[in-house]
Amino acid sequence: MTKIGYVTYADNPVDPDPDLDIPVFTDALRRSGYEVDIVDWQLPFSSDSYDALLIRSTWNYAQNLEAFGSWLHEVSAQTKIINPASVIFHNLDKRYLFELVDLGIATIPTALIENVDQIYNIDVSTSKTVFKPVIGAGARGAFTATGTNEAAVKVQAHFNQSDLPLLMQPYLTEVDSKGEIAVVCCNGEALHAIVKKPALTEGGHGDFARNVELSSDLLQFVGRINNYQIGDTKVKDLYYSRIDVVPTSDGFKLMELELFEPTLFLNTNPKSAEIFAAGIKAHLV
Known about the structure:
Blueprint (H helix, E strand, L loop, with lengths): L2 E6 L13 H10 L3 E6 L11 E4 L9 H12 L3 E3 L2 H7 L4 H7 L8 E3 L14 E6 L9 E4 L1 H14 L4 E5 L3 H4 L2 E7 L2 E8 L2 H4 L5 E5 L3 H11 L2 E2 L2 E2 L5 E9 L2 E8 L11 H10 L6
Parallel strand pairs: 1-2, 1-3, 3-4
Antiparallel strand pairs: 5-8, 6-7, 6-8, 9-10, 9-14, 10-11, 12-13, 14-15
Helix pairs in contact: 1-9
């Protein structure tokens, strides 16, 4: 029997963010004939005893970046990693967004902030702006600011605690009025879409708000991103992906492309779990 390790983390009780996909995903895999263990990436286990490690909810990796990188290098030399380690290393740094801009994908306008002095050279005098670390999950470390003075104070506070650069983006009011849409894909096929609660105004970590239709224009936008290539691998060839977009008056704008630790919202879309269970076979050869 093929043995799969579903890789997660130890949830923080002070700031809870449990992986709600675990029961429905692992049950679907077991019904499809796989042996599945739930493993914490920070606890000892024999990675070579698994036919594959399914990297799913290692959501504290940013706070343990060096250890996570070393761990991923080690286990990828011992067994198959899904999605591949090369994709994970590329995708964990949100500066991949600039590559997508160069390919003509409509994204939210983004600037890279590497020191607080840059704030005074960018016009943020009245606008509400979002700042997020280039490495991070679930809106951890992200913040908003309105005006130059508030932005400078908060950006300096970030750099007092971290060396990670920040991405700066305008805060889109559509995130609150229409919602950020997460499109969940398996092997390039869009299975379902949900609207996330806005984490920066309502709290949480991009939690489920409601299901939403996979419209033809949304599918067309997703299709363009599915052709984005990382090394020798296109997004559409990956086992799982999540494409987060915001609907605007100018069409959809890409927020993030999640290729290694996205919530898949399978607890609210259990039929998709069966498709994921069937679709993993191609990645185990």
